[in-house]
Amino acid sequence: MTRTAILVLLLCLGAVQLQAQKAPKIRASETGWEFGIRTQGDKEIKSITIYNDGDELLKIHDIKVTCGCVKAEMKQREIEPGKSTELELVLTTYNTVGSIQKHCYLYNNDPKMPQLVLTVRGEIRGDWELEKTQLNFGSCEAGMTYEQTVRVLHRRGEKLELRSYESVDPNLEISATPFSETVKEEQVDEISGAKRMVDTVVKGWILKVKLLDSAPAGPFAAAVAVKSSHRLTPLQNLMVYAKLEGPVTIQPLGKMHMGRVFEGAQARRSLKINIDDGNGYMVTGVTVDCPAVEVRITEVDPGRTWDVEFVVTGRKGDGNMNETAVINTSHPLQPVIKIPIDWVCRPPVPGRQGP
């Protein structure tokens, strides 16, 4: 091979290698958006510049965001080498409350970064919200009453009514008292992004939650539905937990779900009551104040174990039913125990027998 031919071959190989090295290179002006603290109902737009630092055309194939409260808009999906375009992140807070950390994914043809990830992080405070969404009474002795409080906060000046605060569990008692106070809160300047502390008047209600002495021994969990006149988020739930210890135990523990009962048909469920301290205490009665429920008690182990069967008869027009089974014992620590019981009554289905 002549010297000239070798030189031509080397030049061709170099050109091919140079062409192979050409590629788009994606870069963002920021790694994400720290929007700080916003109030429910706010809307804000953040622009992030997307650059093509490579030497081939950059193509954005798809954009996805892992949050319904943030939308990504990008008018130009192809970026020439050395050029840039704007990615707009639109935050809407109407249906979102609490701390969020979500991600925006830009799928593109950069071979080294085919998926550019931007993080969106901040806190959205509701016009109204529960100061905490859980109350945990911890380990408690059954047969006694315990009390904790949680505040319902109303930050904005619009009129807000606290319409109800209730639980289907008969072992919780809830009351509400209004309050008002001035607190220091962080505020972010919309133009400069600077943070400062300002005086804010916070109003609301103090919910007093009582766990009654009728709660059965064992793990306790129940929900309190807190409802307001707020147009966007009228309902918030407060979960209440406890671990109750006592000599009278019930299995299975918790609400007695009878399920669906057709009109004229019956549904049956059973529970077992144990009194373990060996002092001869008795189950003196089990009642449900509803004519659709029949209760049958069988003493399995004298002075120690009882089986209780609940028989529900579907009655026309009953619909969704929530009742309370009251268990009476001769034990001084747990003389009354209450168990929620529910079922749904429906019209019969043609050709179907029983529940």
Give your account of this protein's structure.
The protein folds into 3 domains: 24-125, Sandwich (Immunoglobulin-like); 128-245, Immunoglobulins (Immunoglobulin-like); 248-346, Immunoglobulins (Immunoglobulin-like, Sandwich). Helices cover 5% and strands 60% of the residues. The chain is built from 1 helix and 25 strands. β14 (172-188) and β15 form a beta hairpin.
Q: What name is given to the CATH topology of the largest domain?
A: Immunoglobulin-like
Strand ordering within the main sheet? 2-9-8-4-6
Q: Find the count of extended strands (DSSP E, 2+ residues).
A: 25
Could you name the CATH class of the largest domain?
A: Mainly Beta
What is this structure's SSE topology?
Elements: H1 3-21, E1 26-28, E2 32-39, E3 43-52, E4 58-65, E5 70-73, E6 78-79, E7 84-92, E8 98-108, E9 115-125, E10 128-130, E11 134-141, E12 146-154, E13 162-166, E14 172-188, E15 195-211, E16 218-228, E17 235-245, E18 248-251, E19 256-262, E20 266-275, E21 283-288, E22 293-301, E23 305-313, E24 320-329, E25 336-346
Parallel strand pairs: 2-9, 11-17, 19-25
Antiparallel strand pairs: 1-3, 3-7, 4-6, 4-8, 5-7, 8-9, 10-12, 12-15, 13-16, 14-15, 16-17, 18-20, 20-23, 21-24, 22-23, 24-25
